[in-house]
Amino acid sequence: MRILVVGNGAREDALSWRLAQSPSCEAIFSAPGNAGTASRGANWEISATDGKGLADRALREGIDLVVLGPETAIAAGVGDRLREAGIAVFGPNRSAGRLESSKIFAKRFMERHDIPTAKAMVVHSLDGARNALAQWRGGVVVKADGLAAGKGVIVTPSADAARAVVTDWYGSSKIPGGGLDVLLEEPIAGREVSVFAICDGRAIVPFAAACDYKRAGDGDTGPNTGGMGAYSPPAGLPDDLDARVRERILAPLLRGLLAEGEEYVGVLYCGLMWNADGPHVIEFNARFGDPETQVLVPRVGGDLALLLHSAARGAMDLSLATISRESCVGVVLATSDYPRSSTPLRALNPDISLPDGCQAFWGASTLVDERVSSGGGRVLTVTALGKNLDEARSRAYESVKGLAGRLGSAALTYRTDIAADPATWRPGKG
Question: For 312-332, what is each residue's pLDDT tens digit?
Answer without folding.
Answer: 999 999 999 999 999 999 999
